[in-house]
């Protein structure tokens, strides 16, 4: 990745499953360390980076509710799971020599900073990577929506959504070899065709605020830096 970056400041959304590596549950330290290196190389391009990390590798509110738990309590557990993931990624980033701050939407002063928008921006201006934990802080939301929200609040040039495939297809390319790849889509395409990229509230928020969403495959060396340089294959969702 040598070309100039496409954006000055971005938010990277990684799902909880993105931290599992080959495991069925929880965190894989080699995978977390690889993510930290990816973030570091984008930082080295001069791009300001903030992160939203999901919690699905540890707990999902809907699963808790399906087993009879009160949905709101289950969602708070899911949000707490994202705090644990944020701490793991913070630790890996600092080991890789990257300065970080975790800010939680649910204040937890012994553990991390509370979410304060202006302070988060200041951290990024000082070259720190800010990790936003606890989603939006509200039940019935997802970390995809939290990612769109924080990206808009931080005036990010784009929301980068890390996935297991190199972009958006008409069907699951792992199951359907005829699936068509889309290099570019509009927000309305995604909503109208019900393409499963991010949940509808995240797409709607991005559309309303003209926040481009870049869907890419986070696997492989320098995947994040390459997409930032406009190299390789990815899908961009915009107007
Ligand atoms: N969650 C929530 N509000 C938010 C973000 C997340 O209630 O703003 C809860 C919800 O229960 C969700 C869990 O946290 O299932 C983990 O987040 P998510 O499913 O978005 O993680 P991912 O799929 O990205 O790993």
UniProtKB/TrEMBL annotation:
<keyword id="KW-0418">Kinase</keyword>
<feature type="binding site">
    <location>
        <position position="75"/>
    </location>
    <ligand>
        <name>UMP</name>
    </ligand>
</feature>
<comment type="pathway">
    <text>Pyrimidine metabolism; CTP biosynthesis via de novo pathway; UDP from UMP (UMPK route): step 1/1.</text>
</comment>
<dbReference type="Pfam" id="PF00696">
    <property type="entry name" value="AA_kinase"/>
</dbReference>
<comment type="subunit">
    <text>Homohexamer.</text>
</comment>
<feature type="domain" description="Aspartate/glutamate/uridylate kinase">
    <location>
        <begin position="9"/>
        <end position="217"/>
    </location>
</feature>
<feature type="binding site">
    <location>
        <begin position="136"/>
        <end position="143"/>
    </location>
    <ligand>
        <name>UMP</name>
    </ligand>
</feature>
<feature type="binding site">
    <location>
        <position position="56"/>
    </location>
    <ligand>
        <name>ATP</name>
    </ligand>
</feature>
<feature type="binding site">
    <location>
        <position position="164"/>
    </location>
    <ligand>
        <name>ATP</name>
    </ligand>
</feature>
<feature type="binding site">
    <location>
        <begin position="13"/>
        <end position="16"/>
    </location>
    <ligand>
        <name>ATP</name>
    </ligand>
</feature>
<keyword id="KW-0963">Cytoplasm</keyword>
<keyword id="KW-0067">ATP-binding</keyword>
<dbReference type="InterPro" id="IPR001048">
    <property type="entry name" value="Asp/Glu/Uridylate_kinase"/>
</dbReference>
<dbReference type="GO" id="GO:0005524">
    <property type="term" value="F:ATP binding"/>
</dbReference>
<protein>
    <recommendedName>
        <fullName>Uridylate kinase</fullName>
        <ecNumber>2.7.4.22</ecNumber>
    </recommendedName>
</protein>
<dbReference type="InterPro" id="IPR015963">
    <property type="entry name" value="Uridylate_kinase_bac"/>
</dbReference>
<keyword id="KW-0547">Nucleotide-binding</keyword>
<dbReference type="InterPro" id="IPR011817">
    <property type="entry name" value="Uridylate_kinase"/>
</dbReference>
<dbReference type="InterPro" id="IPR036393">
    <property type="entry name" value="AceGlu_kinase-like_sf"/>
</dbReference>
<feature type="binding site">
    <location>
        <position position="163"/>
    </location>
    <ligand>
        <name>ATP</name>
    </ligand>
</feature>
<dbReference type="GO" id="GO:0044210">
    <property type="term" value="P:'de novo' CTP biosynthetic process"/>
</dbReference>
<feature type="binding site">
    <location>
        <position position="169"/>
    </location>
    <ligand>
        <name>ATP</name>
    </ligand>
</feature>
<comment type="similarity">
    <text>Belongs to the UMP kinase family.</text>
</comment>
<comment type="function">
    <text>Catalyzes the reversible phosphorylation of UMP to UDP.</text>
</comment>
<feature type="binding site">
    <location>
        <position position="60"/>
    </location>
    <ligand>
        <name>ATP</name>
    </ligand>
</feature>
<dbReference type="GO" id="GO:0005829">
    <property type="term" value="C:cytosol"/>
</dbReference>
<dbReference type="GO" id="GO:0006225">
    <property type="term" value="P:UDP biosynthetic process"/>
</dbReference>
<keyword id="KW-0665">Pyrimidine biosynthesis</keyword>
<keyword id="KW-0808">Transferase</keyword>
<dbReference type="GO" id="GO:0033862">
    <property type="term" value="F:UMP kinase activity"/>
</dbReference>
<feature type="binding site">
    <location>
        <position position="55"/>
    </location>
    <ligand>
        <name>UMP</name>
    </ligand>
</feature>
<feature type="binding site">
    <location>
        <position position="172"/>
    </location>
    <ligand>
        <name>ATP</name>
    </ligand>
</feature>
